[in-house]
């Protein structure tokens, strides 16, 4: 797994690499779920694999070291003392994130020996274990909203010889009792930077978290730093991948039934000389997500396909020749016009991939392009966006 991460460029020499080499993942995740059903099959079917069962061991080790996300909890169940075997229906409620994402973020976080660390969203305990290895367990706090997750992480980190503070509570409120922290790592997406976490950041400290909306398609990475003089500087980076949503998100998705309506005979087609933005224009797509919320990209489609499941609108763009594209759409929203509107504004702003994050006195937060030409505001109530 480490060799693959190095080859892909997600992992470089340093303490995070040494930690991932040293920490046995089967101790942190002696049980994990593997999906047995197809993507759109309902109800979904899983098997809970167990390392203590010889028949499960090879498949579980392959799962743990494959690099993908690993599901560890079904339907909010107690994690300790479970009986392995099949599960049906429901949803997965805790997981270990993909290792490429985790490794990259942990290296950006730059943990160092002796630092105080707040790990928000314990999951399988991988991040907490890395922090204990690098920083020493005495200064590490791992926090999760689910007491079953907290109990499992506490026991499994103990099995590695680590005894950080494993506590239960609202991650967006942090854990002020052990602060301030030199490093804060949030492993789930939030709508805006929680003020409590900014307040618990020590001078010289750094916090990382995914900022997202109800759409899973275009995440942003918030990098927050407190300078030695106590001032706070932050930026929002448009990234390809981010953490999954935390509590309170009503996530949008394109169901199989919705995707089945995205066909030429169910929409209207127009010819356009305007090129669709490239996938790598992530700063544009991030801005689109905030100026025109409610859109979801179908990354499994051959052509650029975007839907708005709340109103039934969709759009598909297919190349039709030299500098010509066929735009097929359906529904009350003109998604193509929305994309082109933001693309024009994004180009006028210098095509930024990184925005400055501002924390205003009234509690609201703003993202602004470096030249100030493109900006949006995150609502203080976390319920929407004012343009």
Automatic annotation (TrEMBL):
The keyword Nucleus does not apply. Residues 365-387 have a biased composition (Polar residues). The keyword S-adenosyl-L-methionine applies. InterPro entries: PCMT, SAM-dependent_MTases_sf. Its main location: cytoplasm. CDD domains: AdoMet_MTases. Keywords: Cytoplasm, Methyltransferase, S-adenosyl-L-methionine, Transferase. PROSITE patterns: PCMT. One of its GO terms (cellular component) is cytoplasm. It is found in: Cytoplasm. Its EC number is 2.1.1.77. One of its GO terms (molecular function) is protein-L-isoaspartate (D-aspartate) O-methyltransferase activity. It is an enzyme of class 2 (transferase). It holds the Pfam family PCMT. Residues 364-387 are annotated as: Disordered. GO terms for biological process: methylation. Belongs to the methyltransferase superfamily. L-isoaspartyl/D-aspartyl protein methyltransferase family. This is Protein-L-isoaspartate O-methyltransferase. The lineage of its organism: Bacteria, Bacillati, Actinomycetota, Actinomycetes, Kitasatosporales.
